[in-house]
Structures are given as structure tokens and as C-alpha cells.
Design goal:
- The protein is built from 14 helices and no strands.
- By secondary structure, it is mainly α.
- The protein has one domain.
- Helix 9 crosses helix 10.
């Protein structure tokens, strides 16, 4: 297992993926986090670890990113397509689409709803395309503007304008689902630049600010905005919820969310930074994002087979996410679902690792020495 050396950002990745799981499987817990946007954490982390030396061999780096992000995504998308097709034919579920070229290669870039179980992974192609645009703009801007400081300011301002424009346009053009990916890229790209600038220029100042007043001011502002405007974690999957003057809010509140979670990660890293379980979760956020909905389905399938009381068969067969519920036990059950979603996904990844390792050993034994 690879041990991450940047313990603060290891914890930050863990915070982000845990909130993703909580958002989908524990709504009664998630409601306490609605005032702190979280999805931008992953983009910010990617920008933080951006290396300008990769610009020297752009095609090689783009291929590397494609292999790292998109090839595993497309393989898993195919697997879930097969699983959904079989389950629908057997009458176990009534949701999901059939396998074809559109659902395998086009729909994932729109909203990734085609096979349902892996829909939270809509973020992966969005991140890849956002990174690609960011990377190419960085290369181009370096040729035009020689001063690093000026270039960073100008590029960041351009990205912020794109972000605000995306939230403003949401109500106008989002009716055409093919624009979704463009709006998401426009919205997320400033967070990549912010991660890069934060590492190179801002972190040394941020770390010197006293934690208590820092968190009180930032969280206080977001909480006030939450009380006025409601849930600040807008639906980035469908890119919806921005209206009126609120199109300015996601920019401010998302950057505040990043700063708050980054500071919380710094605090937690002192106690959990060397924890192997935390490190393993951080290394496998992709698997958790991709599989936790399927794990919740497996739980439901088991409970459905056992015929437990209070089980809602109709919701299980037709709903995308069914979380079993017993009156007055919502929180306890949802915590169980969170744990299952995280560690069940890690178990799937572990099985893959073991299978891949055995395959390599088998090929090695077959070679003539």
C-alpha cells in the first residue's frame, strides 16, 4: 500500500469522500453539512498536486491522466451495464438503461445516470475534462504571459468569470443536457487553479492564521447564507438550483468550504495522519465514489431476500438509492450504511488488487527464463 506523505491532504480526500457517501446514504446526517459545500474539495486537491513540469510533455501527460481516470471508469461502467441488464431481465430492478454505444461512451459525459449504481462517478469524466482544459490553458498562457505572478492572477480571474457565468446560465441552457458537462467544467476549473496557487503562494500564510477565529468567521458566514438561501451544496450532478442572485453564492461559499475543510484536515492530520486505514481510504476514493451505491443495493437485496419487516419492496425495485429504515432508528441504520458503503467499496477494490496480483504472478511463472 502506498503511504501518502502529505498527511493533511490525505485527510482532506478522506473528508471529501465520506461526505459523498453521507450525502447519498445518510440524509438525516447530511442535513447538518448543508452549509459547507464539499464537492470542490476533489478538484482543489488535484490542483494542489499539479506539477508544471508535466507541461514539457503534454501528450504523454494527457495520456497518463486518461489511463489513470478514464480507462478504469469506462471498464467499471461496462461492468455495471452488464449487472443492470441482468438484474432488469430477472425482474429484480426496474431502473437503468440497456448497454449500447451511447450508454457506454456518451451518457457518462452527460450525467452518468445510465446504469445508476455508478452514477456518483459522474465526477470522474468531469474532472478529467476540467483538468484537460486547465492543462491546455496553462500551457497556452505560459507562452503568452512570461511573468508567473501576472499569469496566475489573469488566469484565475478568467476562471472565476467562467464559473460565475456557468451558474448564471444554468437556468437558461441547462434544459439541453448536452450542455451539462460544459457548465460543470466552467464551474470547477477555478478550484484547480486555486489548489495550485494555494500550494505555491497561499498555504504559508493560511497556516499562520489562528484556527478558532478563522473557522468561526468562515463557517459563520456560510451558516448565515445557509439560513437565508437554504442548502449551499447545489446539485452539481444535474447542475441545478442556482436562481436569482444566488448564482454568486456558489463561488464564495465553495471557496469557504475548501478553506474550512482544509483547516479541519490539518487539525485531524495530527491524530490520524499516520493511520493505515485512513491512508487506504484516501488512496481509493475512486473506488468508494464508484461502488458505494451498489453496496447499498447489495444490503437491500439481502434484506429483501430475508423478508425483514418495514422493507419497502417498491422503493427498492424502482428507487435509485434505497436505504432501509426502521422507525426511530434512522441515524443508527444510516451510520451502518456509511460504514458498509466505505468498507464494502474498499473490499471490492481489494478483490481487484488480489486478482490483478495473481494474474501478474501467473504470467510471470509462464515466462521462459
Amino acid at each position: 500500500m502506498q503511504k501518502k506523505t502529505n498527511e493533511q491532504f490525505m485527510i482532506l480526500s478522506v473528508i471529501g469522500i465520506l461526505i459523498v457517501v453521507i450525502c447519498h446514504l445518510a440524509r438525516d446526517i447530511y442535513k447538518y453539512l448543508e452549509f459547507l459545500p464539499y464537492i470542490a474539495i476533489f478538484v482543489f486537491v488535484s490542483g494542489y498536486f499539479y506539477k508544471e513540469k508535466n507541461e514539457e510533455k503534454p501528450l504523454k501527460h494527457i495520456w497518463y491522466k486518461f489511463k489513470k481516470l478514464m480507462i478504469p471508469f469506462l471498464i467499471i461502467n461496462l461492468i455495471y451495464g452488464i449487472i443492470v441488464t441482468i438484474l432488469k431481465e430477472k425482474g429484480v430492478i426496474y431502473f437503468g438503461q440497456g448497454i449500447n454505444l451511447f450508454t457506454l461512451f456518451v451518457e457518462p459525459f452527460i450525467n452518468n445516470n445510465q446504469f445508476v449504481f455508478n452514477f456518483p462517478a459522474w465526477f470522474v469524466p468531469t474532472l478529467f475534462l476540467t483538468y484537460l482544459v486547465f492543462f491546455l490553458i496553462h500551457i497556452l498562457s505560459r507562452k503568452i504571459i512570461k511573468s508567473d505572478a501576472k499569469r496566475e492572477i489573469i488566469v484565475f480571474i478568467i476562471f472565476i468569470v467562467l464559473q460565475i457565468t456557468s451558474t448564471f446560465l444554468q437556468g437558461i441552457i441547462v434544459q439541453n443536457e448536452y450542455f451539462l458537462i460544459i457548465l460543470r467544467v466552467m464551474f470547477f476549473i477555478p478550484f484547480l487553479e486555486f489548489g495550485h496557487i494555494y500550494k505555491e503562494r497561499l498555504q504559508k500564510y493560511d497556516d499562520k492564521i489562528p484556527t478558532v477565529p478563522y473557522l468561526i468567521i468562515l463557517m459563520g458566514f456560510n451558516f448565515i447564507m445557509y439560513k437565508i438561501f437554504g442548502d449551499l451544496n447545489y446539485d452539481m450532478h444535474e447542475f441545478s438550483g442556482f436562481k436569482g442572485i444566488e448564482f454568486l453564492l456558489p463561488t464564495v461559499t465553495s471557496f469557504i468550504g475548501i478553506l474550512v475543510y482544509t483547516r479541519i484536515a490539518r487539525i485531524l492530520s495530527k491524530k490520524l495522519g499516520k493511520n493505515n486505514v485512513v491512508n487506504y481510504i484516501s488512496n481509493n476514493t475512486f473506488s468508494i465514489m464508484t461502488h458505494h451505491i451498489f453496496i447499498s443495493f447489495i444490503i437491500g437485496l439481502l434484506l429483501y431476500t430475508l423478508g425483514v419487516p418495514y422493507f419497502n419492496v417498491e422503493l427498492f425495485k424502482t428507487g435509485w438509492i434505497y436505504v432501509y429504515n426502521i422507525p426511530n432508528m434512522q441515524i443508527v441504520i444510516q451510520i451502518i450504511y456509511i460504514m458498509a458503503g466505505v468498507f464494502g467499496s474498499l473490499f471490492i477494490h481489494w478483490l481487484y488488487e488480489k486478482g490483478y496480483s495473481l494474474q501478474r504472478k501467473s504470467k510471470g511463472k509462464g515466462k521462459i527464463k
